[in-house]
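Re-running ERF family protein to confirm reproducibility after the cluster update. Everything else is unchanged from the original entry.
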Amino acid sequence: MEREGHKGGLNRPLINNNMSIHKKLLEFQKLGISIKKDANNPHFKSKYADLSEVIGKVRPALTQCGIVMTQLPDEIGLITVLHDPDTDTAITGRINFIGASDMQKLGGAVTYARRYSLVTMLGLEDDDDDGNQAATKPPTAPKAPQAPAMTIEQAFTILRKTTDLAALTAAYKALPVAIRKDNEVIAVAAEVKATFSA
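Result of re-run:
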């Protein structure tokens, strides 16, 4: 059978019986299948392509290219097999189930693994992936630095107004830590302390 053009949509066979599975997968990739993110994930506030979207796009295109797709769960994870019945060759992929501690979580893990393994194995692209969304977001303006709660000059004034060593010690300890560590503030405190000792 000769390869026919893409104009006929997904109904025309694109392969001949002598093609390797890799050449058939190349024909699949030439179809330019795009998966739409049409389902909402409220937990992560994001969109994703649900399983029916992926299967609905992938299965007819693989069939057109002469590839049979099966997905088999086992006790560890999901095995996806892309089988070429003409050459009796296959490509397999595995995704292990993680955190599937009960049947409901296992069901979610199977659905996720089925979707993710097909998208990954077939090199499919999402029509609006997170990278594209991030690229279109306007950059956020950097935050202006906040003014300190107290300036060094205010600290000088507070320290110089003290009337004895106890008041100086209390005023110095009441200063914000960043101000207390300033060398000029330390020098002023030492000057004021010296006047009380004289």
